[in-house]
Amino acid sequence: MTQSVPGPTAAAFFDLDNTMIRGTSLIQLGKGLYARKYFKLGIILRALWLEAVFRATGAEHDGHIVEARETVLSVIRGRSVAELAHDAEQVFHESIAERIWPQAQALAANHLEAGRPVWLVTAAPMEIAAVAAKHLGMSGAIGTRAEAVDGVYTGRLQGPLMHGPAKADALRTLVSEHGYELDRCAAYSDSFNDLPMLTLVGDPHVVNPDPDLLRHARAVGWPVHDFRTPGRRRTIVGAAVGGAIVGGLAVDLVRRVGS
């Protein structure tokens, strides 16, 4: 009688935005969809402002996350799943792949080379998460899912936004399904909002951390990986600087769309 070989019991879980990539994937997706005439200029300008706040303050804001989610859902309502999957993959290769931190990719590769499954666990849309995981050679991805009926998006979520406690709950389910042991697993994130996920595992790491997560990591002795150069590390700045960032992003967007 042949006995089945047990699978690995240790795995690694990586956040996407500002952990595996520089900046926010949802904003890049928004720029790409705007270039493809999914929505009007006012929406993308608001998205650029949210990105400026994210860059300037070094922290995610729950209200902004909810706003971004509702905006994306309204934009894709009535679109086909196949169309968005195609466009999201194009956008990833156009503007997100180049934002991957080589050092973060090396961390993931080290786990893979050691025989440990590596998963992307992110609040980003599943359409982007799946492409990113495939590009990075990962085992799979957990992302926020938009509801679709008969291959067309309804404008509602399928399940929760993969953020905060919901991300930790999804990770517990994944671990249970695959037989991983949490105390042998590692997790990587930049955001204090991911504390529920980080505290689940035996080997938590913080990457390009926001101020709150950095303070916590130092207090409890977690490893800190900061790939940002001193001049590019996030600091709290005034709204005028945020406005300047928006202006620069807007000019860049117009240039890209017009080219």
TrEMBL record:
Record-linked Pfam families: HAD (PF12710)
Domain of life: Bacteria
Matches recorded under CDD domains: HAD_PGPPase
Residues spanning the signal sequence: none
Listed SUPFAM superfamilies: HAD-like
Gene3D superfamilies in the record: HAD superfamily/HAD-like, SG protein - dephosphorylation function
Protein name: Haloacid dehalogenase
Source species of the chain: Enemella evansiae
